[in-house]
Amino acid sequence: MSNWLLIIYCGLITFLTRFSMIALLKKEMFNDRIREILSFVPSAIFPAIIFPAIFLDNSGDFQLENNPKIMAAIIAMLIGIISQNIIATIISGLASYWFLIFMV
Amino acid sequence: MNNKFRVFLKGIFDVSPLMIPVVPFGLIFGVLSIDIGFSPIETMGMSLIVFGGASQIVLLQLFSGGASSLVIISSVGAVNSRHLLYGAVVSEHLSDLKLVWKIVISYFLVDQAFARSNEYFKKNKDKDKYFHLFGGGITCWVIWQTTTLLGIVLGAFIPEKLGLSFAVPLTFLALLVNDFRKLINVIVIIISGLVATFGFNYVPYKAYVIVAGVTALLTAAILTKLNKKNE
């Protein structure tokens, strides 16, 4: 598939999710139980992006020693828990990562 | 002042504070997309056509890992499924709108605009209230396109040594900060992460995002049920 076709399909599926939100879905269609489970979607999906990007190297092998990403991610997570702030989390993670690769 | 325009401006005003975290997100997207090998036009096209931060970053991440198109598209669908949650909430406020407007507003319906307009809709009942969502959505759109463009330009000057690809897990980590304090969420996060990491090389077609997401969501369903029984 060409890159453009891929981009268009990803755009379509994103648009259709949003369109279904305001045009097709009705409040009655979701009971409290389904709402409760859907509220876990970010917690269920985002770590599947986060963890491999931290613990695996470019070829998909485990990289547990000499891996500054692990420490930087832990620092970012702690700052995130304390501050509840998105920018502080990103900046503290990047800053500690750069500190570890350039200074240590 | 025309009422529609007044509500539109209110939308811009209300959503603006939420734009601060969008700036680094857009920059990172632009820089990484060029880094991975998409052309500047394709990168801009992604922000214009998809117009969704999480969707676009997942697209990049899986594309660079060599996933097939079908897997990339369904993973983008999985990431978007979180939006179904608000659908029901916002649809009752917009049920009287013409189809054309529903289509236009759907394109601009991003998390930040939704969050602010939903609060506004609860308090205001006037018939032009959807202009609030339109104003908020256009604000997000302008910020997203501008920061993508800036990222594309900056990407040429940013040395690979900086390891900016690490910004991807960090950005998603930052989106979960509210969930780290809840026990069930923490368990779900760990399950998803472990399944994805260990499945990375073994799940066919790089469909590890979907497999991890479904496993973790089932875990959430079981844990919330057990939790209710114990109460």
Q: What can you see in these coordinates?
A:
The complex is a heterodimer of chains A (104) and B (231). Chain A has helices at 3-24, 32-38, 41-55, 68-83, 86-103. Chain A has 104 residues and is mostly helical. Chain A folds into two domains: 1-39; 40-104, no CATH class. Chain A is extended, with a radius of gyration of 19 Å. The model of chain A has no long low-confidence stretch (mean pLDDT 89). Chain B has two domains: 3-162, no CATH class; 176-230, no CATH class. Chain B has helices at 3-15, 22-36, 40-49, 53-64, 69-80, 84-94, 99-108, 111-123, 130-155, 167-175, 183-199, 208-230. Chain B is globular and about 60 Å long. Classes of the chains: A mainly alpha (104), B mainly alpha (231). The interface between A and B is large, with 69 and 92 residues.
Strand count, sense and closure of the main sheet of chain A?
Answer: none
Oligomer: heterodimer
Count of β-strands of chain A: 0
Which residues of chain A sit in consecutive blocks of at least 5 with pLDDT less than 50?
Answer: none
Helix and strand succession of chain B? Answer: HHHHHHHHHHHH
End-to-end span of chain A in angstroms? 44 Å
Percentage of helical residues of chain A? over 70%
| Regions with little confidence, pLDDT below 50 for 5+ residues of chain B | none
- Classify the secondary structure makeup of chain B into a structural class: mainly alpha
Helix content of chain B: over 70%
* Average of the residue pLDDT scores of chain A: 89
Order of helices and strands of chain A: HHHHH
State the total count of DSSP E strands of chain B: 0
Overall 3D shape of chain A:
extended
Shape of chain B: globular
Summarize the structure.
The complex is a heterodimer of chains A (104) and B (231). Chain A contains 5 helices and no strands. With 104 residues, chain A is mainly alpha-helical.
